[in-house]
Amino acid sequence: MTYIIDGNELADSIRADLEDSVETLTDEDITPGLATVLMSDDPASETYVSMKQKACEEIGMESFHVEIDPEAPAEELYDTIEDLNEDPEVHGILVQLPVPDHVDEERVLNEIDPMKDVDGFHPENVGRMVTGNARFKPCTPHGVIKMIEDAGVDTEGKDVTVVGRSNIVGKPVANLLMQKTDNGNATVTVCHSRTQNLEEKTKNADIVIAAAGVPEMIDGSMLSEGQTVIDVGTNRVDGELVGDVEFESAKDVVDAISPVPGGVGPMTITMLLYNTVKAAGLQND
Ligand code: GUN
């Protein structure tokens, strides 16, 4: 029987522990607070941000939200970040990406106080993660690693193929998995749009992480028995959410697989809550 990695169930168990940590901090008069900033009218971004706010409230955290007209000058976003950096009730800041073309994304990531950078995208935090001294692990990669663990798979010495090289998922997850840590010590291959013989790389891996953003690009014929597959894809096709893996054909081949929806999505949000609780603790030290 193929093990279906249930992201909702795993997220719920981690959130129950986080709720206890929030209660402990609240008893010390520190209620962890997350500020979300949305400068977009993309319905998917609006949905993601409201899910993040709701998740905060469900475990007793504070949630603050700033919406900026996507046509407004970029300065408005930079100024908002500056205000949130100074606000003692805000422990974590998340600017939903992508930002409009006239906004400099690199500057946005640089403006966020690294101690409040719960996405882990600030260059200081990226540098710390790459050198094995992470302050905030990026949420989706961290969630993916928790899911591999949930499937009972030890990554040590395993061959992992990551499909996709984004700064948000592909690069950081590859990096974390190769580190000399409990959930690392893997041999990682990173594939992308210029990779030759992709099928050979996916078929020969022990673990496949699909994070290319191409709907159902990996099917059962590109996979093999005994594998664990984590599908990070969140593609909208005719209004429906579909992954990068064709679930139906893949699930008959592999040992364990995460579905879309109900896989990585809830775990990303959970690790964001985790980072915000951690940020509140660090800012109180
Ligand atoms: N857009 C898509 N994924 C993410 C994410 O993990 N963080 C932020 N801030 N924006 C995103």
TrEMBL record:
Q: Which residues form the Tetrahydrofolate dehydrogenase/cyclohydrolase catalytic domain?
A: 5-119
GO CC annotation terms, alphabetical: cytosol
The name on file for this protein is Bifunctional protein FolD
Protein family according to the UniProt entry: Belongs to the tetrahydrofolate dehydrogenase/cyclohydrolase family.
Q: Which InterPro entries match?
A: Aminoacid_DH-like_N_sf, NAD(P)-bd_dom_sf, THF_DH/CycHdrlase, THF_DH/CycHdrlase_cat_dom, THF_DH/CycHdrlase_CS, THF_DH/CycHdrlase_NAD-bd_dom
Source species of the chain: Halodesulfurarchaeum formicicum
Part of which pathway? One-carbon metabolism; tetrahydrofolate interconversion
Instruction: Please spell out the taxonomic lineage of the organism that makes this protein.
Output: Archaea, Methanobacteriati, Methanobacteriota, Stenosarchaea group, Halobacteria
Q: Which PROSITE patterns match?
A: THF_DHG_CYH_2 (PS00767)
Q: Subunit structure of this entry?
A: Homodimer.
Tetrahydrofolate dehydrogenase/cyclohydrolase NAD(P)-binding domain location? 138-281
Query: Which Enzyme Commission number(s) are listed?
Result: 1.5.1.5, 3.5.4.9
Reactions performed catalytically: (6R)-5,10-methylene-5,6,7,8-tetrahydrofolate + NADP(+) = (6R)-5,10-methenyltetrahydrofolate + NADPH; (6R)-5,10-methenyltetrahydrofolate + H2O = (6R)-10-formyltetrahydrofolate + H(+)
The cross-references to PANTHER family, in alphabetical order and at most eight, read: C-1-TETRAHYDROFOLATE SYNTHASE, CYTOPLASMIC, C-1-TETRAHYDROFOLATE SYNTHASE, CYTOPLASMIC-RELATED
Give the function comment from the record. Catalyzes the oxidation of 5,10-methylenetetrahydrofolate to 5,10-methenyltetrahydrofolate and then the hydrolysis of 5,10-methenyltetrahydrofolate to 10-formyltetrahydrofolate.
GO BP? L-histidine biosynthetic process; methionine biosynthetic process; purine nucleotide biosynthetic process; tetrahydrofolate interconversion
Q: Which GO terms describe its molecular function?
A: methenyltetrahydrofolate cyclohydrolase activity; methylenetetrahydrofolate dehydrogenase (NADP+) activity
Q: Return the SUPFAM superfamilies for the record.
A: Aminoacid dehydrogenase-like, N-terminal domain, NAD(P)-binding Rossmann-fold domains
Q: Does the entry feature the keyword NADP, yes or no?
A: yes
Keyword Membrane listed? The answer is no
Query: Pfam family of this protein, just one?
Result: THF_DHG_CYH_C
Which superkingdom heads the taxonomic lineage of this protein's source? Archaea
